[in-house]
């Protein structure tokens, strides 16, 4: 059964311009779907529509947006409160912008457990430390006491992932989660996402401008240009035999490097 179904999604600016134009896609349980495109292609706006957070004054239209059979297109605020952060988690670029700079990161994760699960203060703190440890943060007790500014970019992204998966969501939306990270840390974050799929069965909607990076995580890829989906297929098909000129252009500057990265990742999964 399909977990997320988006049918003919369009997002319009006040002047009538279509920032997303009739985009349709789906994500199955436990699947990783990648959406690739340059800035302004509509990929991040599509994810915000799934989360119900498209900024005003943009207008959203669609035939249907469904999550686990439930209607998201006409969801009420109470429905969103029950879904966001519980059944759908999200991680974005620049994690420091989404954390309170004056509160230790452990307390911020503990607050999620207290609000969503009703845990007592100490139990919530213990769960936060355990969550940091699960994501490979060394000395999670010490990390929990740190302010966001005291952590590296890679550590902050792991903290954000810990917050996003605190309530064991069925779907994790990862919108450019590795863009600001160096290659080594980027690979570590990708490994974390793959581990989440293997250990928790979480489905992932992964957004990036970097096609080879997406191919390391996702079985299927959608390519967006000017708000439209111009190509889609398996990661192998899109990287090995791209059909659309725009897709070929995304690969052209680093085709050999990107393909090598994908072949290594592909071999690791065999």
How is this structure best described in words?
- The chain has 270 residues and is an alpha/beta fold.
- It has helices spanning 43-51, 77-83, 105-117, 121-134, 140-144, 153-164, 183-200, 211-217, 235-240, 245-252, 255-268; strands at 4-12, 18-27, 32-36, 59-61, 64-67, 70-71, 88-92, 171-175, 203-208, 220-225, 228-234.
- It has a 6-stranded mixed beta sheet, with helices on both faces.
- Helix 7 (183-200) links the parallel strand 8 and strand 9.
- Helix 3 packs across helix 4, helix 4 (121-134) crosses helix 6 and helix 6 runs parallel beside helix 7.
- The radius of gyration is 19 Å and the shape is globular.
For the structure shown, list the relevant keywords:
five-stranded antiparallel sheet; six-stranded mixed sheet; disordered C terminus; alpha/beta; 270 residues; single chain
In brief, what are we looking at here?
This protein is α/β, with parallel strands linked by helices and 270 residues long. It has helices at residues 43-51, 77-83, 105-117, 121-134, 140-144, 153-164, 183-200, 211-217, 235-240, 245-252, 255-268, and strands spanning 4-12, 18-27, 32-36, 59-61, 64-67, 70-71, 88-92, 171-175, 203-208, 220-225, 228-234.
């Amino acid at each position: 059964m399909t977990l997320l179904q988006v049918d003919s999604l369009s997002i319009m600016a006040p002047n009538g311009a279509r920032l997303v134009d009739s985009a349709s896609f789906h994500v199955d349980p436990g699947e990783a779907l990648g959406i690739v495109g340059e800035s302004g292609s509509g990929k991040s706006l599509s994810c915000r529509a799934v989360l119900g957070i498209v900024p005003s004054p943009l207008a959203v239209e669609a035939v249907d947006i469904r999550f686990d059979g439930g209607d998201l297109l006409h969801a009420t605020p109470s429905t969103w409160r029950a879904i966001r952060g519980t059944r759908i988690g999200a991680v974005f670029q620049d994690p420091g912008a989404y954390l309170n700079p004056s509160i230790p990161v452990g307390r911020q994760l503990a607050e999620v457990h207290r609000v969503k699960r009703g845990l007592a203060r100490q139990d919530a703190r213990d769960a936060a430390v355990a969550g940091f440890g699960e994501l490979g943060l060394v000395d999670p007790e010490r990390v929990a006491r740190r302010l966001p500014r005291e952590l590296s970019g890679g550590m902050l992204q792991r903290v954000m992932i810990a917050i996003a998966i605190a309530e064991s969501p069925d779907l994790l939306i990862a919108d450019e989660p590795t863009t600001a990270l160096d290659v080594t840390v980027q690979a570590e974050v990708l490994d974390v996402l793959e581990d989440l799929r293997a250990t928790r069965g979480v489905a992932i909607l992964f957004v990036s401008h970097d096609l080879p990076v997406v191919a390391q995580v996702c079985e299927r890829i959608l390519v967006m240009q000017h708000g439209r989906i111009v190509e889609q297929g398996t990661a192998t098909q899109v990287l090995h035999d791209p059909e659309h000129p725009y897709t070929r252009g995304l690969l052209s500057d680093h085709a050999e490097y990107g393909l090598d990265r994908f072949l290594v990742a592909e071999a690791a999964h065999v």
